[in-house]
Design goal:
The strands form three sheets. Strands 1, 13, 14, 15, 16, 17, 18, 19 and 20 form a nine-stranded mixed sheet that branches. Strands 2-3-4-5-6-9-11-12 form an eight-stranded parallel beta barrel, surrounded by four helices. Helix 8 packs parallel to helix 9. By secondary structure, it is of the alpha/beta class. The chain has eleven helices and 20 strands. The chain is elongated and about 80 Å long. The protein folds into two domains: 141 residues, Lyase, Ornithine Decarboxylase, Chain A, domain 1 (Beta Barrel); 231 residues, Alpha-Beta Barrel (TIM Barrel).
Amino acid sequence: MSFYRPSIETILAVTRGDGPICAFLHDLSALGEQARALRAPLPPGTDFFYAVKANNDPQVLRALAPHVAGFEVASAGEIVRVRQAVGSAARIVMGGPARTEGDIRTLLAFGVERLHVESAQAMRLANAVAARAGATIPVLLRVNLAGPVPGATLTMGGAATQFGIEQSAIPDALTILRDCRALRFEGFHFHTVSNNRDAAAHAALCTAELAMARGLAAEHGLDLRIVNLGGGWGVDYADPDWRFDVIGFARALTPHAKGLRLQFECGRIVAAYHAAYVCEIIDLKQVHGRAFALLRGGTHHFRLPSSWSHNHPFEILPREEWSHPWPRPELLDTKLTLAGELCTPKDVLARDVPVPRARIGDLVCLQMAGAYGWDISHHDFLCHARPERIFLSSSRETTEQPA
């Protein structure tokens, strides 16, 4: 699997060119190929959903719709976004904590097929809203494992987090659920870790979760139809060429999947690779022994590196144009820190990375920028201009101008 590395020629051809360049570029054709490649090795009958939280742009959703089983959402707003972008036929499942009556009403109004409930309060609330509407909501109970669960960047289960129902409380939750006549139990939901780069360990975790689901169903006399194993398939931002071993993961899991409908809801591994964030260098500085490139852009557009405290992968694309009458500033063979245009020292995308040359006017191309970048960023801080958002495919090119 590749990752998107637009050329300087492509960038200059598709951006507006009336100011310092700042743009997200998405390769929609490769995005679809990515989804197909991830889905293909999975056990027969598996539902591979896209987790909308990773990137909810309508063009991304439309590009993925033919290649995924449906969409996993975590808010009423994401339900509406999917319906507006993809239409009434798209399958939607809903998870996440802190459910409200409005969420449940929207779920019913827009034909969401299943709710993943995370607490007794959420069950009772969903039951009350559904009963008033004369409806029945299929549900999965989200389990927070007893743990600990090693090996991932983020852990949602196996620890004291706000997610799911702790494993020891599942029997009590099932008792409550039996009294919720407007809810229909269909299975269990496990989204325990995020960004697990060890495919064998992740397969072992999922296998243990399947065994737990079967054990709970047998113990409590439940008709177990579905087990949702969440996402968590890893991406390595330190090594863009590395890939999660989906084939090995699927091979290890398949013997344990018989008789169940498996579901996955992956976001990062689907969306990350096939977008780039491109920023023009507008100044170079050396301060107290460190070299800085100041960019037209920053963490208000692409918050991921700051939130994960990593150096995001990038390359500097030389741009020969120089229109000023003074000598063009440059730095040679230096360790460069990429800083944005915000008035905070936390506006940094990479720190002290060796580069052979950087000049004002060159472009910094940050790869693997398609997931948890624009969508999680504080766009209006300081009210800087927004980036262009450009979507490319084999058949068309579209541009969303900054709002």
